[in-house]
């Protein structure tokens, strides 16, 4: 005779209860010391499994292909140049840093010689510096199939950059020729509060600008449209186009571009032009206000002031819900300084040149949440000297300060983000990112 459905139901409910009582009886008869060892072993096993899983699923950026370390631009006669070697501060910095690793035994004595006002035994950082800037501002634009939105963005950028920075014109034929300012407007000096701004103490400080368009494997006419724009506006060797053989994602494109900037400041801006580019001056002033004794500073555009405005209210209810939910997750999973930032995702962020070696070499995330890793790396950056008014070193300060600057912003059609799918991916990616840094899967180490 087959068992009734009620009997089957009772067995299903009763089995877990019997297991619980069995485990309770075993625990009651087991010495406390043994239970503690079992508990510690299970916790250790759980962390070990998580560590192994993170090693498998955590993003690992690929090395650049040789062709990705070249760029094309337009020639004065209107033709397209052959691929030219792309300047790379990162390669030189990386080589010098590896060399210093082999000489770590003498690093403390070197630091003591560099900062004689610090008492013996006080921890003072000794990290390498990046090579001097050649232009005043570098603009990095990640672009994937942006043929329909790129031109208005470039027009706005060129108008502002020409008026406020001027165009670099090499006064000579050598690769190290000094840029001189020449443009449609008179470059306006920016307020400078750097405590030790070596670039501005040089006899010939950097001037002008460059634009690095990172073509992230586009399949449309993005490159040809950009080259035609450069030809019409005579942006020869100013608008440089770097093509990635395989799509890396927005984060991968931005990171690749920042490795090759020549500017005293480096800013990345979205190709859709949603953020008003003329607010760049505000970012520069914000960065200069928070720089430390080593001239490290970051300024990020923020749309937090627009919450409740027409631009945000017009969004769909699901989009606003997902935005608030992601911000809540962000506050839980990120370290203190990053969690207090009200808008981490605005595609308009500026870095002083001295800040780049503490952020760019250690980037792993190449998707939508790369901004958060940048901010976390800034927060966890190694200490730098604190300077007194007379220039002497009186202490150290950990982390790179971030200025959150309100910028004008408007919605632009054509986003490639799938609202629900990418929001879920961002939440999972954020959890993986935070766990990877906490458990040591990611570290500040040179590859």
Automatic annotation (TrEMBL):
User: One GO MF term, please?
Assistant: dolichyl-phosphate beta-glucosyltransferase activity
For this protein, the Enzyme Commission number is: 2.4.1.117
Its UniProt pathway annotation is: Protein modification; protein glycosylation
- UniProt entry keywords in alphabetical sequence: Endoplasmic reticulum, Glycosyltransferase, Membrane, Signal-anchor, Transferase, Transmembrane, Transmembrane helix
Domain Glycosyltransferase 2-like stretches? 204-289
Question: Iron among the record's keywords?
Answer: no
The record's subcellular location field reads: Endoplasmic reticulum membrane
Which terms under GO biological process does the entry name?
protein N-linked glycosylation
Decide whether keyword Transferase is in the record.
yes
Among PANTHER family, the record links this protein to: DOLICHYL-PHOSPHATE BETA-GLUCOSYLTRANSFERASE, GLYCOSYL TRANSFERASE
Q: Which family does it belong to?
A: Belongs to the glycosyltransferase 2 family.
What's the protein name? dolichyl-phosphate beta-glucosyltransferase
> What is the source species?
Pseudoneurospora amorphoporcata
